[in-house]
TrEMBL record:
It is a multi-pass membrane protein. The chain crosses the membrane at residues 39-59, 71-94, 101-119, 131-152, 164-184, 190-207, 219-240, 260-278, 298-322, 334-352, 359-379, 391-414, 435-457, 469-491. Residues 1-29, 497-533 are annotated as: Disordered. Belongs to the major facilitator superfamily. EmrB family. This is MFS transporter, DHA2 family, lincomycin resistance protein. PANTHER family: MAJOR FACILITATOR SUPERFAMILY MULTIDRUG TRANSPORTER MFSC. It is found in: Cell membrane. Residues 36-496 form the Major facilitator superfamily (MFS) profile domain. Residues 497-506 have a biased composition (Basic and acidic residues). GO terms for molecular function: transmembrane transporter activity. Keywords: Cell membrane, Membrane, Transmembrane, Transmembrane helix, Transport. SUPFAM superfamilies: MFS general substrate transporter. Residues 510-522 have a biased composition (Polar residues).
Length: 533
């Protein structure tokens, strides 16, 4: 191996955790790795925050841009659609390219989208800005999780993954709060102007300070899989976004045919996508390698993640509706009501990570799922006379339950797969988050709409009808949450012998390798994969 140039950053094999302290090349790998992770955490928090920041701004956008509620909803729907289409491709991107160019591309796209949205003269440019934003956001989350799994030793992953939970769960949870605070004093454009300098700063700092810490391989891109993935996940997300809109606006009846067509296209394309991945993964050419599901722990954690994210996003959508239409609260007040729970979730995440490292996932997941279930059952008893402070307490307890779930799920799930499948596991988890968020939103809104319409038809007052619909929606969520409690007992911490397979070699690869040596030949890559099985 040639002598490393001081200007070249070190890299670590994608399946290894780093050796702490200075290496033989004089580079303090632990300090470098911590710096990379901190930068990725900060950047990811900024980009993921924007997924839900529009939720309480739609009314102002309708008035300012002169658009309908259905058109305004596309600003959220298009974001989710883009995320669902791009995330499955990130498994390929993270294997094929180095850390820094992937980070730079993601933050450049996000910054460009934020600028487009901030100066948008009308609805169409604003929608374009949201789509470009979502493209960058979709890349960041798998990049963060894959890098973390590569750099952090198994015994310390829970603590570090606790910080990732802040990004994944707290950022979308406090998005409506931040939006409400901004809209109380400024126009909707400031939701983008305030984010833009932060995003650009992250881009500039990251472009200089994020070292290349993975070893790319010349993996091929199966374009047909990309097309199937786009139609499959995009069709499902779009179909779910149409659920609950059947009542239309102002009593207008809307055909359900587009929803069923979208579901049909999505299911057919997704089935074809799965079959193609099963065939391609035999030659290590899958866009999304489904061998991750051979781990029962990964499979169970994905199922639990679906329920948890559905509960989180469903609650994020439903509670503001209840607070505004039933309790008569203003957007700013709603934001303040949701803030304590979101902040508490963030404060607990690192502590939960340390508990995971010491005790494993079961002692966290079981009480966490129970708390979530109890709160959902309680929320199914809401009336038009429920005190806002009672609702605040319920949201805080729900946030504690979710805080106990996310860190163990991410850590145990990804820790249970082979190191060479980290990028695919991260992409699967990111895709599941988007689908689960859409499922939760569709389920809660649909049940609420149907029950509210039925009560209104029977002569109930508006607030009584909406409260009844909210009760029914949370009841559906509470019933589903019972399955999460049962599944929590089946999640196990990756075995010690499996963790040992993930430990770093005595001398990790460094950037002293030439570009040719950093990108292993197909034969070398195949041999490395064979050794890892």
């Amino acid at each position: 191996m040639s002598q490393q140039s001081p200007a070249e950053p070190a890299v670590v094999n994608s399946g290894a955790a780093p050796v702490p302290g200075p290496g033989s090349d004089g580079v303090d790998h632990k300090r470098r790795n911590n710096r990379v992770i901190r930068l990725l955490l900060a950047a990811s928090f900024v980009v993921i925050l924007n997924e839900t920041i529009m939720s309480v701004a739609l009314t102002e956008l309708m008035d300012d841009l002169g658009i309908t509620a259905r058109a305004a909803q596309w600003l959220t729907t298009a974001f989710m659609l883009t995320m669902a289409v791009v995330i499955p491709i990130t498994g390929f991107l993270l294997q094929r390219f180095n850390t820094r160019p992937v980070f730079t591309t993601a933050m450049s796209l996000f910054s460009a989208g934020t600028l487009i949205a901030a100066i948008a003269p009308g609805f169409e440019p604003l929608l374009l800005g949201r789509i470009v934003q979502a493209t960058g956001t979709a890349i960041m989350m798998p990049l963060l999780m894959t890098t973390l799994m590569t750099l952090v030793a198994p015994a310390e992953r829970g603590k570090t993954m606790g910080n990732v939970s802040i990004v994944i769960s707290v950022a979308p949870a406090i998005g409506p709060t931040i939006s409400g605070i901004i809209l109380n004093a400024l126009s909707w454009r400031w939701m983008f102007w305030l984010v833009l300098p932060i995003a650009v700063a992250m881009l500039i700092i990251g472009n200089r300070r994020v070292d290349n810490v993975t070893e790319p391989r010349p993996v091929p891109l199966d374009l047909f899989s990309v097309v199937l993935s786009a139609f499959g996940f995009g069709g499902l997300i779009y179909g779910l976004s149409l659920v609950g809109q059947g009542s239309g606006e102002a009593g207008e009846t809307v055909s359900a045919m587009p929803m069923w067509i979208s579901f049909g296209v999505g299911l057919v394309a997704l089935s074809a996508f799965i079959l193609r991945q099963l065939r391609l993964q035999r030659r290590d050419r899958a866009l999304l390698d489904l061998r991750t599901f051979r781990s029962s722990t990964f499979a169970v954690t994905v199922g639990l993640m679906v329920i948890s994210m559905a509960a989180l996003f469903g609650t994020i959508i439903l509670l503001p509706i209840y607070m505004q239409q039933v309790l008569g609260l203003e957007p700013f007040q709603i934001g303040l009501m949701l803030l304590p729970g979101g902040l508490l979730m963030g404060l607990l995440a690192p502590f939960v990570g340390r508990l995971y490292d010491r005790f494993g996932p079961t002692v966290l997941l079981v009480p966490g799922t129970m708390l979530v279930s109890v709160v959902l059952w309680f929320l199914s008893t809401l009336t038009e006379n429920t005190s806002p402070f009672t609702l605040l307490a319920a949201h805080i307890v729900l946030s504690i339950g979710l805080a106990l779930l996310f860190t163990p799920l991410f850590t145990a799930g990804l820790g249970a797969v082979k190191p060479e499948l980290y990028s695919h596991g991260s992409a699967i988890i990111g895709t599941v988050q988007q689908v689960a968020g859409a499922v939760g939103t569709a389920l809660f809104v649909t049940v609420m709409s149907i029950q509210s319409a039925a009560l209104a038809a029977d002569g109930s007052a508006g607030t009584v009808a909406v409260a009844g619909g909210v009760r029914a929606a949370f009841l559906a969520g509470a019933i589903i949450s019972v399955f999460a409690v049962a599944a929590a007992f089946f999640v196990r911490k990756p075995a010690d012998n499996q963790a040992a397979d993930h430990e770093a070699p005595e001398h990790p690869a460094t950037a002293s390798q030439t570009p040719d040596s950093q990108s292993a030949s197909p034969a070398e890559s195949a041999g490395a994969l064979a050794d890892g099985r």
